[in-house]
Specification:
The protein has helices at residues 49-58, 107-110, 127-137, and strands at 2-4, 10-12, 43-45, 66-72, 78-84, 97-100. By secondary structure, it is α+β, with helices and mostly antiparallel strands. It has one domain (2-120). A four-stranded mixed sheet has the order 3-6-5-4. The protein has a two-stranded antiparallel ribbon with strand order 1-2. The chain starts with a strand and ends in a 12-residue tail after the last helix.
């Protein structure tokens, strides 16, 4: 389910479908192994993802390969996008993967509306190391000192 949070921000809620056969391979973001609902990861908008990956790698952060993906919505509209390796371990989900919607209508524009995101706060025992990784990525949103503790 996609829920627009205003502008170019949306929340995507994903879960295994118990009516589908057991997948033959692990699902993205480890969804098939979750024992309880939780925030698994988040995405930051990026353009020229190959350059973002290259710059991060040069600074010692591995974001994985740039992948192309697409899916057809129930109404027949086809979404297509590129993203950096969504399965790369990224500090318990606090370091984002990057996504570029290209010419596809941004999901925040077509998703269910009515919600806003006023704040997102992360707490982690290794906040300084995570902040260092985010800083090395360079193209990620910046955390202020109080937002990641």
């Amino acid at each position: 389910m996609l829920i627009s949070l205003g502008g170019r921000t949306y929340l995507e809620i994903v879960e295994p479908d118990p009516l589908q056969p057991q997948p033959k391979r692990p699902q993205l973001f480890g969804i098939d192994t979750l024992k309880a609902p939780r925030l698994v990861t988040w995405a930051a908008h990026g353009s020229n993802l190959a350059k973002i990956v290259e710059n991060a790698k040069r600074r010692g952060v591995e974001l994985g390969s740039v992948l192309s993906a697409r899916r057809q919505r129930p109404d027949g509209f086809v979404l297509s996008w590129q993203m950096t390796g969504p399965s790369m371990p990224r500090a318990d989900g606090l370091v984002p993967f990057f996504i570029d919607w290209g010419t596809t209508a941004h999901p925040a524009k077509t998703a269910i509306a009515g919600c806003t995101l006023s704040n997102l706060r992360a707490v982690h025992p290794h906040a300084r190391q995570i902040q260092a990784i985010v800083t090395k990525v360079g193209d990620a949103p910046r955390y202020d000192r109080t937002s990641l503790r």
